[in-house]
Design a protein that fits this description.
Chain lengths: 113, 116
């Protein structure tokens, strides 16, 4: 069974204090790994897609990387507005057709001013 | 470009009733997926529709059903509501290029269903 775990469960940072979030996956065959940000009471907002080990994507203070077993979301000099739950999701070869993600439980990030 | 629109945003129903939720995808997107989000289970996949056909289904009981119309709009129905069905129901739309290939999914704001 495909599994996605995320660590830490919650993370508190001071503004400007860089850190990384981890997403580990055990899947039959990875087609893509996705990072989303979710604010309370809202739907997830798409951040990045990574397809193969070694791939990196950047957007403002966020950088996502992918290895064969895990992905990292690096947050450089975070600001309070970066506070949110960060979710990772995988799409696997098992579901050859279709769009159904397996989501991790998320990391709740709080950035204090 | 308009995003994914879900209606209603909030809903309160009584145990045993049924409910229908609606989702309008991003214009041009042909794939619509539904997810249930609860504090205990996180985001769980319900089903996905593409060109009016259900392509994938998650591990939910038959009380959960859906359909997609020719304009790609989708509805989700839950019959005989239980207290445990209280959750945020999220709809996501995707371009689904070429039918077989996936692309990133864009989510709506969700419908908060409370069953009392």
């Amino acid at each position: 069974e495909d599994q996605v775990t995320q660590s830490p469960e919650a993370l508190r940072l001071q503004e400007g204090e860089s850190s990384s979030l981890n997403c580990s996956y055990t899947v039959s065959g990875l087609r893509g790994l996705f990072w989303y940000r979710q604010d309370p009471g809202k739907g997830p907002e798409f951040l990045f897609t990574l397809y193969s080990a070694g791939e990196e994507k950047e957007k403002e203070r966020l950088k996502a990387t992918l290895t064969k077993k895990e992905s990292f979301l690096h947050i450089t000099a975070p600001k309070p507005e970066d506070s949110a739950t960060y979710l990772c999701a995988v799409q696997t070869y098992e579901n050859n057709y279709g769009q159904n993600f397996v989501f991790g439980p998320g990391t709740r990030l709080s950035v204090l001013p | 470009k308009a995003g994914v629109t879900q209606t209603p945003r909030y809903l309160i129903k009584t145990r045993g009733q049924q409910v229908t939720l609606s989702c309008s995808p991003i214009s041009g997107h042909r794939s619509v997926s539904w997810y249930q989000q609860t504090p205990g289970q996180g985001l769980q996949f319900l089903f996905e529709y593409f060109s009016e056909t259900q392509r994938n289904k998650g591990n939910f009981p038959g009380r959960f059903s859906g359909r997609q119309f020719s304009n790609s709009r989708s509805e989700m129905n839950v019959s005989t509501l239980e207290l445990g069905d209280s959750a945020l129901y999220l709809c996501a739309s995707s371009l689904a290029l070429g039918g077989a290939w996936y692309t990133e999914a864009f989510f709506g704001q969700g419908t908060r269903l409370t069953v009392v």
